User: Which sequence fits this backbone?
């Protein structure tokens, strides 16, 4: 349940930051940090929730832009890169967004873990 809530929170925050506030692409990292910081769990779960949320958001957004513009830009970029199929460009866009969101969520999880961790006793503290 925490995984689903964290994933939904990151997706909603990323949409709000990018479409609502007009923030740049790296705002997905901020959304991931907030999601990873607020909802605790395992580190791999934090990364995967950020990754899945951003793959979904950026994938749908890139596909919607692609269909609206009748694939003009994605076809040209696909030809320049040499992949041929414009859908591969949309997939690569979604993966880049997923990696940014996943790393942000993992960073937020790590910050939360550092904040909650108590210092160990029994070793020299100088």
Assistant:
């Amino acid at each position: 349940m925490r995984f689903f809530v964290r994933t939904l929170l990151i997706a909603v925050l990323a949409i709000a930051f990018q479409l609502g506030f007009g923030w740049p692409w790296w705002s997905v990292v901020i959304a991931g940090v907030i999601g990873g910081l607020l909802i605790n769990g395992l580190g791999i779960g934090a990364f995967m929730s950020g990754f899945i949320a951003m793959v979904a958001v950026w994938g749908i957004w890139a596909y919607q832009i692609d269909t609206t513009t009748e694939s003009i830009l994605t076809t040209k970029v696909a030809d320049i890169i040499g992949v041929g199929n414009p859908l591969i460009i949309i997939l690569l866009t979604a993966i880049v967004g997923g990696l940014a969101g996943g790393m942000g969520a993992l960073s937020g999880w790590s910050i939360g873990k550092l904040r909650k961790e108590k210092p160990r006793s029994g070793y020299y503290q100088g």
Q: What stands out?
A: The first helix runs from residue 2 to 20. The mean pLDDT is 92. The helical segments are 2-20, 27-38, 43-68, 72-81, 86-116.
